[in-house]
Amino acid sequence: MTTSSEVLNSIHEINLSYLILAQKILREDKSVAMFRLGVSAELAAILSEFTVAQITRLAMTDQLLCAFRFSGHEQLAALARPTRHEDVKATHAAILLAGQSVEQFV
Length: 106
What we know:
This protein is an all-alpha fold. The chain folds into two domains: 1-64, Flagellar transcriptional activator FlhD (Flagellar transcriptional activator fold, Orthogonal Bundle), CATH 1.10.4000.10; 68-106. It contains six helices and no strands. The protein is flat and about 45 Å long. It starts with a helix and ends in an 8-residue tail after the last helix.
């Protein structure tokens, strides 16, 4: 059985990993990262400039900082369904997400 403490520790670890990854991809290619993360230019600028201490402090929140970006169960189900063309699954996901506004994620 999972305790509340274990769940919070898992949330903190996920948040820290997510923030480190977000900062890394923002620094490599800001426009691609903004699309992949679903964030605005303003939020991207803030995230890319965070110090290690700021990232660590933000990661310790009790809420997940990353979220599902699909607006409905149909999109998620379509991406999870087995397909004969696995090589185009990433492109399909990008097309679905491209139709959503950035404001939805900030």
